[in-house]
Design goal:
Largest sheet of chain A: 7 strands, mixed
Shape of chain A: globular
CATH topology of the largest domain in chain A: Nucleoside Triphosphate Pyrophosphohydrolase
Distance between the termini of chain A: 65 Å
Radius of gyration of chain A: 22 Å
Structural class of chain A: alpha+beta
Number of strands of chain A: 10
Oligomer: homodimer
Number of helices of chain A: 6
Helix content of chain A: 25-40%
CATH superfamily of the largest domain in chain A: Nucleoside Triphosphate Pyrophosphohydrolase
DNA sequence: ATTTATAGTGTTTAAAAGACACTTATAAAG
DNA sequence: CTTTATAAGTGTCTTTTAAACACTATAAAT
């Protein structure tokens, strides 16, 4: 008895239970672009694959959707399993489906991106030795269509960071104006005018300036700020406020 | 011999061929939100399901991904099969995956939206009697998570139409300024100032004003315009031009 | 010739974005 | 203690873009 016959038997028996007959099933992968910001540079977390196919090459982290979870949960699980991190900003990006995108097996990949404050989370939790933070600019070639995914994630991050307060997810809770500006300069990949940037940010009126200073950055030190999420949400709700940089 | 046993045998035999062992497979559906613009109103194409589950209820059109095609191709095929239309603007929107979203069977749905000029395409091609163009504002409740999909599609269309020349996909090749304004008013669901709108559009400098007039709209008649796609693309390439309404 | 319905047309004001340079606070060095 | 070095902090003017606003023009129908 051949494998295919056996599958047919199983399928046919199973189908009595289902409405959608004879449709093809596929493997659903979840791949994650993990962005981190480290003082001056935007980085992504990559791994050197220690399994086939494409063993030894650089890749995004990923996993497979399980029957009893939705995609958001799968993305959270993948991130948690491989980095130990939880309670992280994640967002679905796009679904990739080229027929031969994965030479191992027909696989569709739903891509997510995550934003992490590299400093605040100690990375003892990283479950894989082969994972490294790599500057976006120096990123190596990745397997499959992962480069395409990263490009789309950067475009999304760029757009989204200009219209939503997600940049703060990449910063420590307390940050200086210069850090915030550095972050936006990294995301947009261009220099911004310091005075215009600060005026802009202040006009949004969603930061709280602390008395505390960060003395590591200069002789003079720089005041620390925090993002006032409650205030932001209240403004959105009450005045239809639009975060816009 | 139970079905599950049989499946296990088949699976195990099969796995020698595959890299990714013991991962769950799922059904991948493709659902389409089809937008049409009919003189004054933004509409979507809906069907009354004549099959289980949820037979008799309103739904988006959809189908299932096949082994030998990617998602874009599946979306094109679904649209073609059910409406006879091809060469239509389509774009992937989002992937929906709630565990119990489809009571029939565990199904993940990748959602697309399409933009159609209702007038230009004669709908003799429509393959299903049960399909109807329904004004967005009067749309009935849809099955599963289809309402959520439509909401997201509207949001996407709104954003995208403000920053890309996709609105023209919803209009006849030749259109009046008023039609274009009506379209944007429908998409944004708010009134726009006629003079400001025309000034804005003219400043973009991507329309060609024809000598021809549409005499059906008023005694005076209204000049017809066409979108100059070549000019637009040249501007984008050469000057980094940004379509922005 | 008059009516009627919609097309077509500019200017002024307000708001937002962009360009631009000097002073200040503090720690470290001497 | 004085000097020095370093990045922080701060405002104004100009340009561009968005928004408010109302009358005239055209052609068909009567």
């Amino acid at each position: 008895m051949k494998v295919s016959d056996n599958l047919e038997v199983a399928k046919n028996a199973n189908l009595q239970l289902n409405y959608y007959q004879k449709e093809d099933q596929v493997l659903l992968a979840v791949d994650c672009i993990i962005f981190g910001f480290d003082k001056k540079d935007l980085k992504i977390l990559l791994i050197k694959r220690n399994f086939e196919p494409e063993k030894g090459k650089w890749s995004l982290i990923g996993g497979f959707l399980k029957k009893n979870e939705n995609l958001d949960q799968a993305a959270v699980r993948v991130l948690k399993t491989l980095t130990g991190l939880s309670d992280i900003y994640m967002e679905q990006l796009y679904t990739y489906s080229k027929v031969d995108r994965d030479p191992g097996q027909r696989t569709i990949s739903v891509c997510y991106y995550a934003l992490i404050d590299v400093d605040a989370h100690n990375f003892d939790g990283i479950q894989i030795d082969s994972a490294s933070w790599i500057e976006l600019k120096n990123a190596p070639e990745l397997i499959f269509d992962h480069d395409e995914m990263v490009q789309k994630a950067i475009a999304r991050l760029r757009r989204k960071a200009m219209t939503n307060p997600i940049g703060f997810e990449l910063l420590p809770e307390k940050f200086t104006m210069r850090q915030l500006q550095n972050l936006y300069e990294s995301i947009l990949d261009k220099k911004l005018d310091k005075r215009n940037f600060i005026n802009k940010i202040n006009s949004l009126d969603v930061l709280v300036k602390l008395d505390e200073k960060d003395m590591t950055v200069s002789r003079k030190g720089a005041y620390l700020y925090i993002f006032d999420k409650e205030k932001y949400e209240k403004k959105v709700e009450e005045d239809g406020f639009n975060f816009k940089i």
